[in-house]
Design goal:
By secondary structure, the chain is α/β, with parallel strands linked by helices. It is 42% helix and 17% strand. The longest helix has 20 residues. The protein is globular, with a radius of gyration of 20 Å. It binds nicotinamide-adenine-dinucleotide (NAD).
Length: 353
């Protein structure tokens, strides 16, 4: 049995997360997968019930679950300088070291390119992002008004584990190809260490092919001809930019799911924010949250050797493909007139019939 936490988040999180849970429940029932769902307060609901946007009960319960769904947090609207209103740092707290972001085009959804099917892995605990690399203080400082210094942290352990996660995912895909993106000729030590660890791990996966591309050239190739890429692994800041570029290739935010993975647990989290401008109207696109949930099932299935979870993930993917191809229930951002719950209904129907 799997234990999965459900954290709705704020604004449209309250609409899209329940659709993802319904879809996952339908797929689990079809595949004989037992799941103990644990709803937990986070964000505004956490503050209303426990006086904090990240209540201790949520943190304590998450320690004992296999993974969780995390809806978007409307943190930009939180009161400033009040420590009970924070953007919950779950990624850092649970050492979820890689952000996995698939980029997939659909024939009938407007996009810059067709036949794109890439999974990006971005290392998220080190690199240049100051919040990730420091325990106290930040990764940037300004000794005087004319100079600002930022640092970048790359470790063998961080590089090795994200590379290994990339090969594990590549193994589950048809093309089994991993591309490491870096800039070793310039950043000889930092990118050099990342590249070395990727090569070491590649040698342990003879069933997968491996190549390396420099980040500037890769950014261009992604725009001009993204189709050959399968699994792409890169460091934090390069990944931050490339994953958004990837989402832009196939239709933008509504189609950008994500999974943050650690050694033991994973968090399903769509790329989009809480979209307060459309919240409460049942028009938000639930695709990204549903497909993030699908990724959680797939990851747990492989990690815990649970074929029923792998099967449930595949079932959700096939159902979503069908709903998108039929284009009857699509939400406004995808060119349709459907609703959040209507799209959830359609995916559930495609799973159960
Ligand atoms: P946003 O992603 O919420 O919205 C940007 C635009 O995309 C809006 O026009 C919105 O209506 C649209 N959009 C987003 N998701 C959509 C969906 N599923 N279906 C249809 N349209 C969708 O970004 P923002 O407006 O910059 O931020 C809003 C709030 O979300 C802020 O408080 C921000 O801090 C927060 N945020 C949270 C996360 C997170 O928790 N992971 C990520 C980004 C932003």
């Amino acid at each position: 049995m799997l234990k999965i936490g459900v954290l709705n988040g704020d604004d449209i999180g309250l609409e899209v997360v329940p659709q993802a849970v319904r879809v996952m429940q339908a797929a689990a029932a079809r595949c004989g997968l037992t799941v103990d769902w644990q709803p937990l307060p986070i964000g505004r609901s956490g503050h209303e019930t426990h006086g904090h946007t990240m209540p201790q009960v949520t943190v304590d319960t998450l320690k004992a679950v296999d993974g969780w769904l995390q809806g978007p947090i409307g943190h930009n609207a939180y009161p400033r300088s009040d420590s009970t209103w924070i953007n919950p740092p779950l990624r850092k707290m649970f050492e979820l070291f890689a952000s996995v972001k698939p980029v997939k085009s659909y024939p009938n959804i407007a996009s810059i390119h067709k036949n794109v099917d890439i999974v990006f892995l971005r290392e998220v605990t080190e690199g240049m992002q100051s919040g990730s690399v420091t325990v106290a203080g930040t990764g940037e400082f300004r000794p005087n008004d004319d100079i600002t210094i930022g640092h970048r942290v790359i470790t063998r352990r961080g590089s090795n584990r994200v590379a290994r996660a990339a090969f594990e995912i590549a193994r589950t895909r048809a093309r089994k190809r991993v591309t490491a993106v870096h800039k070793e000729p310039v950043f000889r030590l930092a990118c050099g260490m990342f590249a070395e660890e990727c090569r070491k791990v590649a040698a342990e996966y003879p069933d997968c092919s491996f190549d390396e591309v420099l980040v500037d050239g890769f950014a261009m190739k992604l725009v001009m001809a993204p189709q050959p890429y399968d699994v792409v692994v890169t460091t934090n800041q390069f990944g931050d930019i490339l994953t958004d570029e990837g989402a832009g290739l196939v239709g933008g935010l509504g189609l950008a799911p994500g999974l943050c993975i650690g050694d033991r647990q994973a968090m399903a989290q769509a790329t989009h924010g809480s979209a307060p401008d459309i919240a409460g109207r049942n028009i938000a696109n639930p695709y990204a949250m549903i497909m993030s949930g699908k990724m959680l099932f797939a990851w747990l299935g492989h990690q815990r050797a649970l074929p029923a979870a792998v099967e449930a993930a595949a079932l959700i993917e096939r159902a979503m493909d069908k709903v998108i191809a039929q284009a009857i229930a699509l939400t406004g951002d995808l060119g349709g007139q459907g609703t959040t719950s209507g799209m959830g209904d359609a995916v559930v129907a495609a799973i159960t019939h």
